[in-house]
From TrEMBL, chain A:
TM ranges: 47-71, 91-109, 156-175, 196-223, 255-275, 281-304
Main location: membrane
Membrane found in the keyword field: yes
Pfam families the record matches: BPD_transp_2
Subcellular location: Cell membrane
Topology of this chain in the membrane: Multi-pass membrane protein
Superkingdom assignment: Bacteria
PANTHER family found in the cross-reference section: GUANOSINE ABC TRANSPORTER PERMEASE PROTEIN NUPQ, SUGAR ABC TRANSPORTER INTEGRAL MEMBRANE PROTEIN-RELATED
Protein name: Nucleoside ABC transporter membrane protein
The entry's keywords: Cell membrane, Membrane, Transmembrane, Transmembrane helix
GO terms assigned for molecular function: transmembrane transporter activity
InterPro entries attached to this UniProt entry: ABC_transp_permease
Any one GO cellular component localisation term in the record: plasma membrane
Species of provenance: Alloyangia pacifica
TrEMBL record, chain B:
Record-level GO cellular component terms: plasma membrane
Name the record gives this protein: Nucleoside ABC transporter membrane protein
Keywords on record: Cell membrane, Membrane, Transmembrane, Transmembrane helix
Domain of life according to the entry: Bacteria
Amino acid sequence: MDYATLLQVLDSTVRLATPLLLACLAGLFSERAGIVDIGLEGKMLAAAFFSAAIAAVTGSVWLGLLAGIAASMVMSGIHGLASITFRGNQLISGVAINFLASGITVLIAQDWFSQGGRTPSLMGGGRFESITLPFAEALRGVPVIGPLYYELISGHSILVYVAFLMVPLTWWILFRTRFGLRLRAVGEAPEAVDTAGVSVVGLRFAAIAICGLLTGLAGAYLATGLQAGFVREMTAGRGYIALAALIFAKWRPWYALYACLLFGLLQAVALRYQNIDLGGFIIPVQFMDALPYILTVVILAGFVGKAIPPRAGGEPYVKER
Amino acid sequence: MDKMPAWADAVLVPLISILLAAILSALVILAIGESPVEAFKLMVDGALMRSSGWGYTLYYTTNFIFTGLCVAVAFHAKMFNIGGEGQAMIGGLGVALACLFIPFPHWSVALIVATLAAAAFGAAWAFIPALLQAKRGSHIVITTIMFNFIAAALLNYVLVNLLRPVGAMEPATAGFPAATHLPTFQDMFASEGNPLFRGSPANVTFFLAVAACIAFWFLIWRTKLGYEIRAFGHSESAARYAGISPVRITVVAMLISGGLAGMMALNTTMGEAERLVLNATEGAGFIGIAVALMGRSHPVGVFLAALLFGFLYQGGAELALWTSIPRELITVIQALVILFTGALDNMVRMPLEKLFLATRRRSS
């Protein structure tokens, strides 16, 4: 494999890791606050559809982005209503949200566009254009570093840079602000937060609102950045891979970045090479597809460093017993 | 605090939840410019007013009974098995291997062996998540989700690389031998003058599903193992104090659950397609969640809920055929049912409890 090919694979790794990273950080905020969220997939899907649909209708990708975020915020609101207000089962609520998004997106797409559950292809202002960073063209001729800067670091859409900047920002919010401390506390010992006079319900709703915002970005990137338009089930399990990455990362922002890059790399390799031939022994493409899930099971099993979730995760908080 | 009477808990709460889901679904149909009344009429006409419609409805019902019981048995042990889909896929592999490689003299023998194979394969796929939950505390929901994806990849590999007939493009096995053909309702009930169930896929597996309901009831409420599963589900510490091994119950309950999911594949693979195709399960594993929640994990409830979803599935297909409403409407209804009967249960329950409390106070 030559240097150019390597750069191409890494470039597509970055692109494919972006939605995973945004969704993973979304799940991080939610689960750190004690709300388990297996509805990441559904929220991304809803955001992908509404961002593409509004972008197609108005021709403005920014309005599309807002619509996508709004859609996934609504989904987050339903999840919050079920799991915080009515103290329902968070897992079941997540499952319901996934199905709701899977059905309603196709239903509305069919009603609005009559194209078999997809949106028209986005063109021009309906998509996020790639940004060429300063000096990318000038430095292109410089050996090794030039192509690296031009191919890998420059030339992505704005949401990619947002996603990567979200990692230090998430770390800073969670571990360096008062809000972050409280948010983590509410996922470990909500009764302590309550005793201190801080609203558990308020904090948890704030956490899932952030979760909705980030999954909204993830979905919008899928439909308006990575691809040009919405097709049914376009998230294709990415929400679950993000969930796997979250466990892989042990609910930490920087590890989340590494996990998402790893899973992005696996996807990029699986996309580029169908079956990998290792000197007579062939790794089938299906194995590459399944690898993120297999790795997550191994991590969950605790054979390679145990993943310990936030203590109060999945438990509805009852003020007085 | 006083509780509601048992009948209200078992019947009234689910009914109100379904009503809420139905009202919202009607609003969705209105929003896309169709008439909910017309749509409902079409669904009833297509699913219940013709014997072939019933043939499809009962075919889907069979799937949902198996997957519903699969989720229900895990619920009794306070576990949430989202892996029914993957377990059913692998169960299908078991059915295909049995049907393709064993020369059966008669369909009845084939059915027995294929049932065992389906249950064994499905149970095997549930075994690792169960063991990891019991021994290492890995959350069963996450591991079973992961195993769904691993199952899909595995099945894809096996169909594309191993079981696909030479020269075929489609990732599917060869057709099963004629001796493994299960009698359909048409074979059983139609006669020269009375062509019942024409062309519909309902088959003898339906009776197996009904038998599974009865066996489920007997297992959970009439055997020692069932008692242990329920005790474990109510309180793990109490169960442990009574000498019930948590590891054993977790693993056994999940094996039963996986086995039931695997048996669903009999209906789709052996009963209908008569070969193993890539997407044989069609999401039935997930519908099991809605069915178990709505049926309150009781076999009678599961049967009725499965019948409702069978009707919705067949009716939804009719709608997609005659109107501009796509089949995804059923996915929305399914989501609403899961939401209201599962996650928003308290929203319905809390006001009802207050109501019952108020009427009781007044009468006393």
